[in-house]
Amino acid sequence: MSSTDSSKVDVLVIGAGPSGLMLCTWLARLGITTRIVDKRFSAINSGQADGLQSRTFEIMDSLGIGQDLWREANHMLEIRFWNPDKDNRLYRSDTIVDTKPGLSRFQQATLHQARIEDYLLGYIKKHSSIKIERGIMPESLDIDMKLVDAQDEYPVSVTLRHLPPQSPDLNKAGDSNGASTPNGLFRSNLTADTVDSMLKAARESSHSHTELVRAKFVVGCDGAHSWTRRQIGSVMEGENTDCIWGVLDTIPITDFPDIRFRCAIQSASGSMMIIPRENKYVRMYIQLTEMKEGGQACVDRSKITQDNLFAAAKKILAPYNFSYKHCHWWTAYRIGQRVGSKFSAHERVFLAGDAVHTHSPKAGQGMNISMHDTYNLGWKIAYAVRGWADRSLLKTYVTERRQIAKELIEFDHRFARLFSGRPAKDIMDEEGINLETFKAVFEKGNLFSSGCAVDYASSIIVSKPQSSSRNGSDVQDEAEIAATTFHHAEEVVAKQHLATKIPIGQRIPSHKVLNQADARPWHLQELLPSNGAWRILVFAGDLQDPAQLKRYKALGEALSSPLSFASKSRLGKESLLESLIEILTIHSAPRAAVELLSLPEIFHPFSDEYGWDYNKVFVDDVSYHEGDGRAYENYGIDGRMGCVVIVRPDQYVSWIGDLEDSKEMERFFSGILRV
Amino acid sequence: MSSTDSSKVDVLVIGAGPSGLMLCTWLARLGITTRIVDKRFSAINSGQADGLQSRTFEIMDSLGIGQDLWREANHMLEIRFWNPDKDNRLYRSDTIVDTKPGLSRFQQATLHQARIEDYLLGYIKKHSSIKIERGIMPESLDIDMKLVDAQDEYPVSVTLRHLPPQSPDLNKAGDSNGASTPNGLFRSNLTADTVDSMLKAARESSHSHTELVRAKFVVGCDGAHSWTRRQIGSVMEGENTDCIWGVLDTIPITDFPDIRFRCAIQSASGSMMIIPRENKYVRMYIQLTEMKEGGQACVDRSKITQDNLFAAAKKILAPYNFSYKHCHWWTAYRIGQRVGSKFSAHERVFLAGDAVHTHSPKAGQGMNISMHDTYNLGWKIAYAVRGWADRSLLKTYVTERRQIAKELIEFDHRFARLFSGRPAKDIMDEEGINLETFKAVFEKGNLFSSGCAVDYASSIIVSKPQSSSRNGSDVQDEAEIAATTFHHAEEVVAKQHLATKIPIGQRIPSHKVLNQADARPWHLQELLPSNGAWRILVFAGDLQDPAQLKRYKALGEALSSPLSFASKSRLGKESLLESLIEILTIHSAPRAAVELLSLPEIFHPFSDEYGWDYNKVFVDDVSYHEGDGRAYENYGIDGRMGCVVIVRPDQYVSWIGDLEDSKEMERFFSGILRV
C-alpha cells in the first residue's frame, strides 16, 4: 500500500539529533508550525557524543535546563599530561586548568548525548506540541523558484517516505564482533552511507508509503551522511588522513592515578586521551598505530574489535594496570576535517551540524557546535516566518556558522595532528612533538573549545566599529559580506571603547547584578532567556549623579516615543512574546540610593493588570550572600557614564553606544526589524 | 455496600500534607512497605503555607530536589521596617538582612505549598511505588499491648473508611461570601472540626466501605484537627488570644516602594506583614483590629470577607495606593500557640506537624517544622522496621521534636504579640512597643526561623560533652531523658573543642571542599544525601606530615577490623544502602601533595566490579572557579591534627573525637545499631 498525502508546514526539520532538537527549541518557543522527522526508530541510548562546552551550558541555561544538566554532568576541572621519561616510563609531566577561570560560570563537562536530547525534548514538549516522527526518510526535495521570495508561500516540497516497521533499527550495532557490548562502528566514518539502500528497500516494501510536505523552510540536520546536503549540491571539502583512533567507554579498574582527570597521554606505545564521564564511566580515545597502513575509504572493520582497543589501551597505560567489567560502547574513526561547500539554498533550505562539518571527536566539539549552528539559525527562521524580519536575515546564518565551521576544522586539524604525532625524544628531535609546543597548542585550543570565544564578523546584526569589522580572518566570501552588510548596517556606528570587555560580535559575558526591587542576585545571562527578544541593556551609570540621571531620563524619553522601535516592536500580552525588544537597566549607584518607582516608567513599565514591572532594573552592588559581581569593572564600563548595549536574541552583542545614541539604535533596528 | 478487608503494612501514614509526604521520602528511600491516606479527594492548589526556611532547602537538597525548589522560589533577602512618624505618616524606619550571611547556602524564601508537595511526590514516585490514597478517613485505632514490644508484629490496627465519591471536596471553599476567590476560612482555626460529621455522613452512605489495616507503626500527620491525636489521648495545651489576623494573596498594584521586600509595617491603623511570593504574588498578613472584641471559640465568619481584608490593608498602607486585579486566596486566623501533651503512644503511634503544634502563620514556620518533624522521624522508623536499631531509638523523636515544638511556641508567642501590639508613641509610652525592641526581637527570631539553630539535647544519638548535656533548657521530661540516654550513651565522651564551629546536636554547617580525585568542589552537605547512612567524617588533617599520616593510617586499621561497626554495618551491594556507616575523609594538605591511591583502602574502598571508589576523599583547598571553602577554619578544626565527626542520617552531629578515639566510636554505635 503506497499512498501520497499532502500537507503544509512552516518548517520541516530532517534529523532529530542534538542539532535538530536545538532548532526545535526556538520553533517551539516562538509558536512556529514544525515537523521533525528521523529515519531512526528509536533515540540513541549509548555512545556518541559526551563533551559539553561552557557555552553550551550557557545556552541550555537560557532555556531553563542548564542547571539540571550541570548538576548531572561530570565536571572536568584539570588536565593532566603524561609523557615518557628518558627510560620510556610514563610520568605526569604537567597539570593545567581545563576551562580558564572567569570565562564562564560553567566549565567543560561530560554528559551522555542521550541525556542532552532528553532535556531538549522536555523543553520542546513544555512549549509546544511538536513531536519527533520516527521511521521517516525524505525521498525528494524541490524548490519552486517562482515562490522563493514570497513571504507567505511554501516553496519547498519534500516527499517523505514512512519506512516499513520491520526496517533495521539504525541504533543497534550492525555486527557484534562476537562481543556483547554495543559498538558504534556502523555510525562511524569508517562505514559507507546506507541511505540509498534503505530507501530502495523501503520502496520495494508493501508496508511503506509516502506523503508530500510543502514547507516554508527545510533544515537538514541529518548528520555526516546528510541526504539533504546532496539535494542542494553541497559537497564536503577538506581532507581525510590515515590515522585511525578507537573509542572505548568503560568503568575502568585501574591504578592509573589520574583516571578521573582529563588526561593527554603520549606514551612510547601511542597516544591516548582520557575523558572522565558521569556514572563512573571513562572514555578513552586510543591511537591505533598498528592500523596506520592502507589508505582505502573504508577499512576492514573486522580488524577493529573491542579486544583490540582494550589491548592498545593497556599497552599505552603500562606499567599501570587497566581492566574493566563494564563497557558501555566502543567505536573507531578515521581522522579528517571537512566543511560543506554550501550551507543553504536560496535561504529556504539549510544544513546544520555534522551535515556541514565533520572532524575528529577527541576535543568534544561536535555535538556542541552542531547545536550552536541551529541555536544561531532557529530564531532567525522564526523571525522570517512571523514576518518580523526580512528573509535576508537568514544570510547571516550562513556567514556566521561557515566562519565557525572553518575555525573548527582548523582547530581540529592542529589538535588531531598534535595527538597523532609521536612525542619528541629530545630537543634535537625535529619530527617529534615537543612537550612545550603540545601544551601551548592545548591551552590555546581550550579557549576555542570552551565555545565562549566565538566572534561573529560584521553584518546587519553585528555592528563592529569600522576598523575591526573584518577581524583579520579570511573565512568569509566577499559576496556573503556584501549581502549581509547591505544598506543600513554600515551607517551604524558602534563604540567598543565604552565597554571594553564586552566584545561586539561575541556572546555577552555574565557577571552578577542585583534586582533593584528585591536585592536578589542574578547572573546577567540569566536575565536573557532565549525567548526571541532583543535586549537593550542600559548601563545607566551612577544615577545618584543628577547629570547622569538626566541623561538616563532623556534616553527614556527617546525610547518612549511612539515612533521608536522599542514602541513599535510591542506585540502585546496575548502574544508569545510581549515585545521584540526588552529594555533592561543596570545602574551603578548604591542600591539603597535609588528608588525604583522614581525612575522613568519605560524602564519599569506599568500594567493595569499587574502593576509595575519589578524585573527590569538591576544594580551593580554587593550582595548579602553571593559576593560582589563588580559588573561595571568586569565589563570595562565607566561607572559614572555607563553605556548602552544591544544584545541579540541569542545573547551575542550587536552594538554598543552612548546613552545619547538613540538614533543609532533606531538605525540599527530599522536594518533588521519589520514592524 | 460495606465490606471489611484486612491487610498488613509496615507503616500507615494518616494525612498527605507536607509532613506526611516528608515521612514517605524516607520510607520510600529505604524500601519500607507504606500506605498513606488522606480524607481530601484532591491536593491543595491555592493558599496555605508558603514560607521556606534555609534548613528546609538544605533538607530538600539532601533529597536532590533543593536546587529546583530554590530556583523556583522567591528569595527574601532583606526586611524593611515601616513605622509612623510623629505626624502618624508611614516612613521606612530601618532595613536589615533577612537570613544571616554565612548561616546556610540557602536563604529564607517563599514558594507555594502545592509546589513543595509536587516535588516531594516526585521524589517518592522515583524511589518507590507508594501512592497517596485519597478519600479515606481512619475510623478506629487499637494497639495490641501484647505485641507492642515484638520486632516483627503488627500491633496497631486501624479501620479505614473509604468515603463515598460524592463527599464534599475539602479543598473547595465552604462559603464564598459572594466573591469568586477561593477562601481558606474553612480550613482556618476559626472553624470547628468537621471530622466527626464527615464520618457520620459516610457511615450512613451506601457507597462507603471500610477495611482493616494492621501496621507496625502509624503516624498521624492529620493536621490541627488531628483524629489520630484524639485516639492516643494527646491534648493540645497552650492558649488562644482574641487577636484575629487576615491573609490576602494578591498581585498588588501599588506605589508602596517596598512591595517586593519582606516588610514589617506598624502603622497608626494597625500592623501588616508583607511577604513577597513567586509569580508576582504578594501575601499580606493584616491585623483586623476592628474584630478584636468577642472571645468565643468560633467567631462569626460572615464578618470576615475579602473586601474587609482589602479595606483594612488599604488603610494600613495609606497614603500609598493599593489595589489588585488578581487575588489567589484569602483567609483569617486567630492567634494562639498550643502543643500536644503526647507525641507518641508506646513508640508505635506517632503524631507530627500541626497535629502536635499550632501557632500563627506569620513567621512562615508551620510547613517547615512539620516537615522537619517527620524528617526526624522517618529514618528512625525505617531503622526500627528493618531491625537496624532497637525501637527505643524512636523515643528520641519525642524528646527532640517536643523540644522544638515548645521552642516554636515560645518564639511565636513573642513574635505574634510583638506584631499585634501597637507601636510606642514616644520613649515614655510603656504600653506601646518600642521600635528598637521590635527590631531586636525580630533579628533574634530570624535565627530561629532559619531552622538552622535547632540544637537537639543529649541522647543515645547525641553525645554532648557532660558539661553541656542539658543546654540550659527545661523542655524535656526527666523521664524521657532517662529513657533516651540509657546505658551506652553516658559512657561516650565527645570533644566539642576539636571542632568548635560544629556544635554537637546541631545540623552540620556546610562549607566547600574539593574531591581529591577530580578537583570538583562540593558543599559538604551535598556529600550527605538522605539515603539512611550514618557518616564518619574523618578530618584527617595535614597528610603531608608523616606523623599525621601515621595517625590516619592507624584509624584506618581500627575501622578496617572485622569487629568494627564500620565493617559490621555493611549491608552489601544488593541492598538499598551499601552500608549503615559511610566513611568520608576531608584532609587539609595541598591537593597536589596527596595521591588518593596511596591512602589506606578503607578510605577509598575497592570493588571488583567498579575499581576504586573516587568519591570518598576530599580536601580543603582552593578551587579554580568557586573560590576557597576554608572548611577547616570555618569548622574550627586544627589544620594539622584534624578530628573525627559522626553525623546522623539526618545531618545532625552526634559526636566529635580524636583520630585515636575509635573505641569511643564503637561504644557510640553499639548504643544504637543492631548489626
From TrEMBL, chains A, B:
<feature type="domain" description="FAD-binding">
    <location>
        <begin position="8"/>
        <end position="411"/>
    </location>
</feature>
<feature type="region of interest" description="Disordered">
    <location>
        <begin position="164"/>
        <end position="186"/>
    </location>
</feature>
<keyword id="KW-0503">Monooxygenase</keyword>
<feature type="compositionally biased region" description="Polar residues">
    <location>
        <begin position="177"/>
        <end position="186"/>
    </location>
</feature>
<protein>
    <submittedName>
        <fullName>Probable FAD monooxygenase</fullName>
    </submittedName>
</protein>
<dbReference type="InterPro" id="IPR038220">
    <property type="entry name" value="PHOX_C_sf"/>
</dbReference>
<dbReference type="Pfam" id="PF07976">
    <property type="entry name" value="Phe_hydrox_dim"/>
</dbReference>
<dbReference type="GO" id="GO:0071949">
    <property type="term" value="F:FAD binding"/>
</dbReference>
<keyword id="KW-0560">Oxidoreductase</keyword>
<dbReference type="Pfam" id="PF01494">
    <property type="entry name" value="FAD_binding_3"/>
</dbReference>
<keyword id="KW-0285">Flavoprotein</keyword>
<dbReference type="InterPro" id="IPR036249">
    <property type="entry name" value="Thioredoxin-like_sf"/>
</dbReference>
<dbReference type="InterPro" id="IPR002938">
    <property type="entry name" value="FAD-bd"/>
</dbReference>
<dbReference type="InterPro" id="IPR012941">
    <property type="entry name" value="Phe_hydrox_C_dim_dom"/>
</dbReference>
<keyword id="KW-0274">FAD</keyword>
<dbReference type="InterPro" id="IPR050641">
    <property type="entry name" value="RIFMO-like"/>
</dbReference>
<dbReference type="GO" id="GO:0016709">
    <property type="term" value="F:oxidoreductase activity, acting on paired donors, with incorporation or reduction of molecular oxygen, NAD(P)H as one donor, and incorporation of one atom of oxygen"/>
</dbReference>
<dbReference type="InterPro" id="IPR036188">
    <property type="entry name" value="FAD/NAD-bd_sf"/>
</dbReference>
<feature type="domain" description="Phenol hydroxylase-like C-terminal dimerisation">
    <location>
        <begin position="454"/>
        <end position="673"/>
    </location>
</feature>
<comment type="similarity">
    <text>Belongs to the PheA/TfdB FAD monooxygenase family.</text>
</comment>
